[in-house]
Design brief:
Blueprint lengths: L1 H24 L6 E3 L16 E7 L2 E6 L3
Antiparallel strand pairs: 1-3, 2-3
The protein binds 2-acetamido-2-deoxy-beta-D-glucopyranose.
Length: about 70
Amino acid sequence: MQVKLSVFFTLAMSAAQFVLAQDSTCSGLYAQCGGIVYTGPTCCYDATRELYCDYIDHNYSVCVPTGP
Ligand SMILES: *[C@@H]1O[C@H](CO)[C@@H](O)[C@H](O)[C@H]1NC(C)=O
């Protein structure tokens, strides 16, 4: 019982760390995700909706929601 519990917590913690890492290393809704002088994250992440990186021009790309 004790062993199973610690395995569960180890898995739960690594899953939580993965979600947090994804959250903090990607741009959020309407945040910049690309550009000629931009050095930040080029991926997009939002907890509530799916985002993609929309190319505006070679200086600027922005994270926008997919779909309508
Ligand atoms: C991109 O930025 C450069 C330097 O600021 C500027 O000269 C150029 O007009 C910009 N290009 C576009 C497509 O906005």
